[in-house]
Automatic annotation (TrEMBL):
SMART domains: PINT. Component of the 19S cap proteasome complex which acts as a regulatory subunit of the 26S proteasome, involved in the ATP-dependent degradation of ubiquitinated proteins. InterPro entries: PCI_dom, Rpn7/CSN1, Rpn7_N, RPN7_PSMD6_C, WH_DNA-bd_sf. This is 26S proteasome subunit RPN7-domain-containing protein. Residues 196-386 form the PCI domain. The 26S proteasome is composed of a core protease, known as the 20S proteasome, capped at one or both ends by the 19S regulatory complex (RC). The RC is composed of at least 18 different subunits in two subcomplexes, the base and the lid, which form the portions proximal and distal to the 20S proteolytic core, respectively. Component of the lid subcomplex of the 19S RC. GO terms for biological process: proteasome-mediated ubiquitin-dependent protein catabolic process. Residues 77-104 form a coiled coil. GO terms for cellular component: proteasome regulatory particle, lid subcomplex. Gene3D superfamilies: 1.25.40.570.
Length: 420
């Protein structure tokens, strides 16, 4: 299993969800809760850098959402300066009188301090210095994971990507089972954030049975991410096995209230309770059973309940909804050679005109292999013939092989004549 992870307490990534909420005009109903939680955290943990980053009148990203109090900021900064001096004195004493382990411990406290108060640049710098001084591979992995969380907090996708590659190399050189699994969750969430749903799905689904990374998201949030990534990317067989019939998924989707063990009920993200998961359950079941009318209804509910409100999913909301509609259209059309527009519109619970417009978004780019005949009111599929495609591929490859053999034969004959 390996030792318990180090440096895993800070920063609290759930705070970044509340920052996201306050930056969305359409989530004003949740502003009061988000403000309360952020303000409480700033005061409890003396987070002067975070307070300035959020509320400063000219530089704060939430200058109009969180009130600025100069006296409060000065009070928090004074506490930070006093605490930091204690860590620096401890480090100086360790360097003068103690050994390497004491120096590393003092450097770790200083790095965690900057992560706690959420100062990105100083935290990353402190962790880099700690990384250079640390000998243990496991501890090095923990340090890189801490840096990833700081970058996730500030939505630094490029930095996250570089450090995930760095952590992967460390894990391959000697990471234990627990750290491998933690990195799998981190990587899955990062891939989801950059819209690589097909790559994220296996990592997130595999993490469901071994999840311990509560420092990056709640378990219910992980289930949400895994289900959405799997629904949009898995083939029908794997979708049934890994999502529809998954024991871990069913345990959450079938829950009727109450927190999941290990989660912080006082500081939750947009998807950390089971309220509204009925729509997610309806989405996957209706998609699998081809109940397209229920599928469209549940897709709209999932968009409103989760995609719009979640900081990782919101920027991919329009793409996800569009792709899920395309998958549903493709799934239905695979069963028909010709289908009437009216029949298909009835199955999806929409008008013929709306369906015609929506299908027209996918047909020109060959995302759907069909044509619409408005005169006769039909849709005709023109799926590629796999047998013909395979036959043409074999012929093409055979021609290439014969050409290479002819060139080889000519080269052999030339070398033979040279010897003669």
């Amino acid at each position: 299993m390996g030792s318990d992870p180090q440096y895993a307490s800070y920063p609290n990534l759930l705070l970044s969800q509340h920052i996201f909420t306050l930056r969305q005009p359409n989530l004003s109903a949740a502003y009061a809760t988000a403000q309360k939680i952020l303000t409480a955290s700033i005061k409890e943990h003396s987070q002067a850098p975070l307070y300035r980053y959020l509320a400063h009148p000219t530089e704060g990203v939430l200058a109009n959402k969180i009130p600025w109090d100069e006296n409060l900021y000065n009070e928090l900064k004074a506490k930070n300066d006093e605490e930091l001096k204690g860590y620096e004195d401890e480090l100086k004493e360790a360097e003068e009188k103690a050994g390497e382990s004491e120096i590393v411990a003092a450097m770790g406290k200083k790095a965690e301090f900057w992560a706690r108060v959420v100062d990105k640049e100083k935290a990353l710098q402190a962790y880099e210095e700690l990384f250079a001084k640390t000998a243990s591979t496991g501890a090095k992995i923990d340090i890189v994971l801490a840096m990833i969380r700081i970058q996730m907090f500030f939505d630094d996708k490029h930095g996250v990507s570089k450090n995930i590659d760095r952590a992967q190399r460390l894990v391959e050189s000697g990471g234990d089972w627990d750290r491998r699994n933690r990195l799998k969750s981190y990587n899955g969430l990062h891939l989801l954030s950059i819209r690589h749903f097909s790559d994220a799905a296996p990592l997130l689904l595999e993490s469901l049975s071994t999840f311990t990374s509560y420092e990056v998201c709640t378990y219910t949030a992980l289930v949400l991410y895994a289900v959405l990534a799997g629904t949009i990317s898995l083939d029908r067989v794997d979708f049934k096995k890994k999502v529809v019939d998954s024991a871990e998924v069913l345990a959450v989707l079938g829950s009727k209230g109450g927190p999941i063990p290990g989660e912080d009920v006082d500081m939750v993200d947009a998807s950390s309770n089971t309220e509204g998961f009925e729509s997610l359950e309806m989405l996957i079941n209706s998609f699998y059973t081809c109940d397209y009318k229920s599928f469209f209804i549940s897709l709209a509910e999932v968009e409103d309940r989760f995609l719009t409100k979640d900081r990782l999913l919101a920027e991919h909301k329009a793409w996800f909804v569009r792709e899920m509609r395309r998958h549903a259209y493709s799934q239905l059309l695979e069963s028909y050679r010709v289908v009437s527009l009216q029949n298909m519109a009835d199955q999806f619970g929409v008008s013929v005109e709306w369906l015609d417009r929506d299908l027209s978004k996918f047909i020109p780019s060959k995302q759907l292999n069909c044509t619409i005949d408005r005169v006769n009111g039909t849709i005709e599929t023109n799926r590629p013939d796999d047998k013909n495609r395979q036959y043409n591929e074999v012929v093409k490859q055979g021609d290439q092989l014969l050409t290479k053999l002819q060139k080889f034969g000519q080269a052999v004959r030339l070398r033979g004549s040279e010897r003669a």
